[in-house]
Amino acid sequence: MLWKCGANVYEYRRERERRFKGDVRRVQAMVGVQEAAHPRLVTPGEVISQDTSFMRGHGTYMEKGVQVASVAGYVTRVNRLITVTPLRQMYQGAVGDTVVGRITRVQTNRWKVDVNSRLDAELRLSNIQLPGGEQRRCNVEDERDMRALLTEGDLVCVEVQKICDDGLLRLAARNIKFGKLSQGTLLAVSPSLIVQDKQRMHDLPCGARVVFGANGYVYITPTVPQEQASTYIVNFEEVPVEVRKTIGRLRNCIKLLAHHSIMISPTSVMTAFDMSIEQEFEIKDLLKPDVMQDVALATVQSMNE
């Protein structure tokens, strides 16, 4: 009976490895990257190196004198140090990152924010710019009115100010481009698919503003003046139908790019957006598997030209 259980586990692992390698080949074919130019991809349990002179880094362990991968990802070697960077992981955070989060709790002098990380991040009252751009110390009245600024369920655009020893992220919203978000839609993708860029907020030519959060939360909203983009006052004005259609098409384009593991950036999103219009696909049709594949392939081919 024990032998059967062990055999089942072995077959299960073999099946997972087979599926993972099939996905890797599919992604490589879509992106158009040659095998020699692509980083080495490994699965859990795969031998990375039999050379004992290499140092063991994150995502690896030693077994019977050889270095083995503990996660699925790509191998990185710096001098004599070998690490494996996971293809899928929760957001770890980096100081200076612009992220999009959702308020989960209101506490004394602070808000707890879901930023797609292991722990809820922390936004302190002293680290936000008060309405009107006032630069002053927060008092007791400000603490009492915290829910008037941000309450549970609100979306915010903030910056990572500090990373604590336990992995807790401390956030800040000290200038006009950060603050509360409204009149838009939120989409969650893998943080590893977001292209690293200093500028995270982009006004796209199609008439929408997109915030590409480093934590994998992408927020799409109508284009508004910068001074109105992030405030603490909810805008209840009706959004025109054409703008809502544009936002819906952008959302589905980002979703199909993420589904096919294509890096998400303003260029790739606008390319997919234009391809979906050129091929005359309806917004709702962009969620069909065959249409998603057609638009993704057309996007990659257009970007590689």
UniProtKB/TrEMBL annotation:
Belongs to the RRP4 family. One of its GO terms (molecular function) is RNA binding. Transmembrane segments: none annotated. Keywords: Exosome, RNA-binding. It is found in: Nucleus. Residues 96-174 form the S1 motif domain. Pfam families: ECR1_N, KH_6, S1_RRP4. This is S1 motif domain-containing protein. The keyword RNA-binding applies. One of its GO terms (cellular component) is cytoplasmic exosome (RNase complex). Coiled coil: none annotated. InterPro entries: Exosome_cplx_N_dom (IPR025721), Exosome_RNA_bind1/RRP40/RRP4 (IPR026699), KH_dom_type_1 (IPR004088), KH_dom_type_1_sf (IPR036612), NA-bd_OB-fold (IPR012340), S1_domain (IPR003029), S1_RRP4 (IPR048565). It comes from Scylla paramamosain. The keyword Hydrolase does not apply.
